[in-house]
Design brief:
The protein is an alpha/beta fold. It has helices at 12-21, 23-26, 35-45, 59-68, 88-100, 109-121; strands at residues 2-7, 30-33, 49-51, 74-78, 105-106. A 5-stranded parallel beta sheet has the order 3-2-1-4-5, sandwiched between helices. It is globular, with a radius of gyration of 13 Å. It catalyses: dihydroxyacetone phosphate = methylglyoxal + phosphate.
Length: 123
């Protein structure tokens, strides 16, 4: 599967812990991530990650383009719902594209754990 990993600043530590916990799952798949999140995942897990630009610099749109080209199978986007984001329209567009193309989207740890459990059971 092609999996996108995105995390707002206040959720980056959560993403690091999540990818460490599920490293055995992620090493079997192609990972894509926005700039800073991707580098943190690489630094802490040594997983291979295709990095796009940082979210505010167009990374969310790049992931969206992969979705619209039907090249993404799962998106895990740990959003910070309590902090205003300067690129909120890009975030909304990414979520909308997941809905349009029926791409499973986890925006919190509970849903992400559930989706990985489901995906693991189908391997």
């Amino acid at each position: 599967m092609n999996i996108a990993l995105i995390a707002h600043d206040k959720k980056k530590e959560l993403m690091i812990e999540f990818t460490k916990k599920h490293r055995d799952f992620f090493c079997k798949h192609q990972l894509f991530a926005t700039g800073t999140t991707g580098q943190l995942i690489i630094d802490h897990t040594q997983l291979q990650v295709h990095r796009v630009k940082s979210g505010p610099l167009g990374g969310d749109q790049q992931i969206g383009a992969l979705i619209s080209d039907e090249k993404m199978d799962l998106v895990i986007f740990f959003r910070d719902p309590l902090t205003a984001q300067p690129h909120e329209p890009d975030v909304s567009a990414l979520i909308r594209l997941c809905d349009v193309y029926n791409i499973p989207l986890a925006t919190n740890i509970g849903t992400a754990n559930y989706l990985l459990g489901y995906a693991s059971s189908r391997e």
